[in-house]
Specification:
By secondary structure, this protein is an alpha/beta fold. It has eleven helices and eleven strands. A nine-stranded mixed sheet has the order 10-9-8-7-5-6-4-1-11, with helices on both faces. The protein has a two-stranded antiparallel sheet with strand order 2-3. Helix 2 links the parallel strand 7 and strand 8. Helix 3 runs antiparallel to helix 7. The N and C termini lie far apart (about 55 Å).
């Protein structure tokens, strides 16, 4: 008699899925910003550390350095396999390496974990000045605050001017802020699937995700990090991820993949799920085990506040400051950051001739999935070899901490 063995139940999710002190470092290194970081709010954030990874060798003058910036739930692990210290494979693995678009025989590629994140950089789950997690005490951040921290990282790595700054989605917001706020340190720019400013609809999507997390009883006002497994705000974080993931993919793709089909062995009319519900549950379950709810709230709030024109006379005047070569690309099926926003950027950036279009059925996530098309854009942006041959510098660099 054949029997079907039920899959073993997963252990309860931890209060926070973010990296904890003492976890394997993987490929990460750290830079500590010695002075408290001034924030746009007027607050100062002490003890800031940024985790980062590098590929290739830095030229003696730093002229071959390229900054790659991740999206909301990404991290510094742009390339390489999953393993100790890295819960997921590199999110743009096909772009980085010898002979690839970001050729590590030519370019020194740097990818930080964003300030406010949870994979090694200072954020709500990090120890505060008293050694306890920051939790509810962690200040609100803006995209400009995050770029200020990245500028301190560039200083520590002795990079006066990036050959290029590249990013998509939230990373594209930071890349754009680099070009507008620090054009003298930005040699060229590639923005993928990101706007000049968050729209009302994008703020609305972000706000309901934040509310989903804060409404979870396990949120505890943001001070949940000492809670036992299963008692953190993982239900709220899971709901936020489900909401977000719907906006990340396109309706035609969901219809083609799932339609109205029930999950095998389940009956939606009797408490079971449709296949698309199971798909969303799967992505929610993965995120709660590798991400921190407080970081999700902090980073989503920063994205909601994104506006390169704030305090600079508006978007048009602000973008004129970025007098440098620029490429702007959008995904044709993106319903979260639609092509109209990239067309606006391409029209207003002085160094951009026209918008590029990434063709994909996958919606916003197309900038992560269509790596061949993204690689072509990177090669268009960086067609020439760096002005100086790579040369290994003594390690560690100033203010650099090794794990």
């Amino acid at each position: 008699m054949n029997r079907t063995t039920a899959p073993a139940a997963l252990p309860l999710p931890p209060a926070s899925g973010g990296r904890r002190e003492g976890d394997p470092p993987g490929r990460r290194r750290w830079v500590t910003i010695e002075d408290p970081l001034p924030l746009e709010s007027g607050a100062r954030l002490p003890g800031v550390r940024l985790a980062y990874e590098t590929w290739g060798q830095r030229a003696a003058d730093g002229s071959n350095a390229v900054l790659v910036l991740h999206a909301l739930t990404g991290d510094s692990h742009v390339a390489g396999p999953a393993g100790p210290g890295h819960p997921t494979p590199g999110w743009w693995d096909a772009l980085v390496g010898p002979g690839r678009a970001l050729d590590t025989d030519r370019w020194f590629v740097v990818a930080p974990n964003v300030l406010g994140g949870c994979q090694g950089s200072t954020g709500p789950s990090s120890p505060g000045p008293d050694g306890a997690p920051w939790g509810s005490r962690f200040p609100s951040l803006t995209v400009r605050d995050q770029v200020a921290a990245e500028a301190a990282l560039a200083d520590a790595l002795r990079v006066e001017r990036w050959a290029a700054v590249i990013g998509g989605s939230m990373g594209g917001m930071r890349a754009l802020e680099w070009a507008v706020g620090r054009p003298e340190r930005t040699g060229s720019l590639l923005v993928l699937a990101a706007p000049a400013a968050a729209s009302a609809e994008q703020i609305a999507w972000g706000s309901v995700q934040i509310d989903a997390i804060r409404s979870d009883p396990g949120w505890r006002g943001g001070d949940y990090h000492a809670s036992p497994p299963g008692a953190g705000p993982h239900r709220g974080l899971g709901r936020a991820r489900r909401i977000a993931h719907i906006t990340y993919r396109s309706e035609p793709e969901l219809a083609a993949r799932f339609g109205r089909e029930p999950q095998p062995g389940e009956e939606p009319g009797r408490g079971g799920r449709y296949q698309v519900e199971s798909y969303l549950d799967h992505h929610a379950g993965k995120l709660v085990r590798r991400f921190d709810a407080g970081s999700y709230v902090t980073l989503t709030g920063a994205m909601n506040g994104h506006d390169v024109g704030r305090g600079r006379g508006g978007i048009e005047r602000a973008l004129r400051r970025a007098e440098l070569p620029a490429l702007v690309a959008g995904v044709d099926s993106d319903r979260l950051y639609p092509l109209s926003q990239q067309r606006q950027l391409a029209e207003l950036l002085p160094g951009c001739d026209r918008p590029r279009i990434v063709e994909s059925p996958h919606g916003h996530d197309g900038f992560l999935i269509e790596t061949d098309q993204v690689a072509s854009l990177v090669r268009e942006l960086l067609p020439q070899p760096p002005p100086a041959p790579p040369a290994v510098l003594p390690s560690p660099l100033p203010h650099q901490e090794l794990p």
